[in-house]
Amino acid sequence: MSRPIDLVVVGLGNPEPEYATTRHNAGYIFIDYLANAISLAQGQAARDLPKFYRRLDLSADVRDTLFTSTNEDGSITNSFRIILIKPLTAMNESGYAVQKVLQHFGVNDTKKLIVAADDLNTLPGTLMIQSGGDLSAMKGHKGLENIVSVIGTEFIRFRLGIGRPISKTTEISQWVLTPFEKGNREMDLFGHLLHLTTQALYDYSIHKDLKRIKKKFAHNQKLPNKLTEMNSLVFPVDTHGF
Questions:
Q1: What's the predicted TM-score (pTM) here?
Q2: Is 141 a catalytic residue?
Q3: Which of the listed CATH numbers 3.30.420.40, 3.40.50.1470, 3.30.70.120, 3.30.2350.10 matches domain 7-240?
Q4: Could you tell me the maximum CA-CA distance found in the chain, to the nearest angstrom?
Q5: pLDDT digits (tens, 9 = 90+) for 34-55
């Protein structure tokens, strides 16, 4: 694809299958959800899974795609080239994969980078949006801390609310590495958040206005009275190639 890259969107997580639906894999789940949402919006059949390429040289699964919107007559109104990334490194080495990808695609402006990651300090179902700042804004999340140590803080963070454990006896390390639960509508809240975050990304793709998306989509927004029931947080993709 020869056109310029508009955005690089990275979802943080652990690549091992046993972590697939855990809270710490919120970023991975979002990337798979987003890949499917883009494919369906472009008219691809649900059976045609979005294709990621496992690039071991980049330490990441990569999907190079167009994010488009159309009028009722099918004509394209907006089109954006977006690189979707799932690092294959350990969480605390995510920055090295991000750096490799940016260099490979010739993206020198880190403001084109959006990183989606789980956030303990944001309520379930809600989104926090950040950019810039200092390292203290990333403290506590090893993936974000490592990215900052490699490329600095001038990138956008979509922090996906997972909240903290209700029980004070539950260790944080245990909490983040266990799956989202059906009880307390936790899965439903996260499903709502996936949709909300996709809307925020699309809005940002069009307007490139961070203040606008913070106002429209950030965590002070009220949750809907009725949530879509989520029976799974697995959004299948086709991963192959080197």
A1: 0.94
A2: no
A3: 3.40.50.1470
A4: 56
A5: 999 999 887 777 778 999 999 9
Select which of 24, 141, 192, 219 is catalytic.
24
> What's the DSSP call for residue 17?
G
- Residues linked to residue 70 through DSSP beta bridges, in sequence order: 76
What would the two tokens of residue 129 be?
Answer: 């949006």
Is the CB of residue 98 less than 8 Å from the CB of residue 147?
yes
Q: What span, in angstroms and rounded, lies between the C-alpha atoms of 171 and 120?
A: 12
Residues 110-126 pLDDT 10s: 999 999 999 999 999 99
C-alpha neighbours within 13 Å on the C-beta side of residue 28:
26
List the alpha helices (DSSP H) in the chain. Answer: 26-41, 94-104, 142-151, 172-176, 186-207, 210-217
Q: Which helix (H) or strand (E) holds 69?
A: strand 60-70
Phi and psi of 112, rounded to 5°?
-85, 0
Element (H, E) at 110: none
Instruction: Spell out the residues 6+ positions from residue 101 whose beta carbon is closer than 8 angstroms to its own.
Output: 8, 10, 58, 60, 62, 83, 85, 107
Say if CB 124 and CB 163 are below 8 A apart. yes
Domain boundaries in the chain? 7-240
- Strand pairing category for 60-70 and 76-87: antiparallel
